[in-house]
Write a structure and sequence with these properties.
Length: 206
């Protein structure tokens, strides 16, 4: 390849190449172990170009997490699929991405590597986990559950726990255990809601 062609290749899509390199490195060796120079080398871009796009590593990490959200490469994305019935969307929370080795929730991973709850990365990760609960609340409300927030927190806890254990055990099918527990919670919540509705109707007609 000529010097001119190489320069042209390096000059186009620098931000996208940086994010792609960061995603690979963060997934394989962790955020803390990945240096900015390594990202620049893997992109490949000059350090000047890297810092022109991302002034700090925190900026790069947040951009990486935002890119995951926009690309639909998170568990939460299943919750927004309007072409799928609400209960099936909840079930998909327990499906791990088809990747080897298995990775856990990127937001939990990021929060663990930036433990200060006031840090920008930790704050963004928290926002996404709260968004996850809000999306589940909407779905279980559609299903008719009486206490949607309580149930949503339980389901989110199951999904996060399953994702973490799937990563530790490198078992992409580990979510089946949490999915079975989620089905029990959903069935119970729906029975209670139906019973409460029936009792209220009976009282109203007495």
């Amino acid at each position: 390849m000529s010097t001119t062609a190489t320069a042209s290749r390096r000059g186009r899509g620098g931000r996208e190449r940086i994010l792609a390199a960061a995603a690979r490195l963060f997934a394989t060796q962790g955020i803390g172990a990945t240096g900015m120079e390594q990202v620049a080398e893997q992109a490949p871009v000059s350090k000047r170009t890297l810092y022109a796009h991302f002034r700090t590593k925190n900026d790069l990490v947040i951009a990486h997490l935002q890119d995951l959200v926009l690309s639909g490469a998170t568990l939460e994305d299943a919750l927004t699929r309007e072409d799928i019935p609400p209960r099936d969307r909840i079930r998909r929370l327990f499906d791990q991405p088809d990747a080897a080795p298995v990775r856990g929730c990127p937001f939990i991973d990021a929060a663990a590597e930036f433990p200060d709850p006031e840090s920008a990365v930790h704050s963004y990760a928290r926002e996404q986990k709260l968004r996850m609960v809000a999306l589940i609340v909407d779905l279980v409300t559609q299903l008719g559950c009486r206490e949607p927030l309580l149930l949503a927190e339980q389901l989110a806890t199951l999904a996060d726990g399953a994702a973490s254990r799937a990563m530790v055990l490198d078992d992409p099918d580990y979510g089946r255990h949490a999915r079975a527990a989620a089905e029990i919670l959903l069935d119970q919540a729906l029975r209670e809601s139906t019973g409460a509705t029936g009792a209220n109707s009976s009282t109203a007609t007495d």
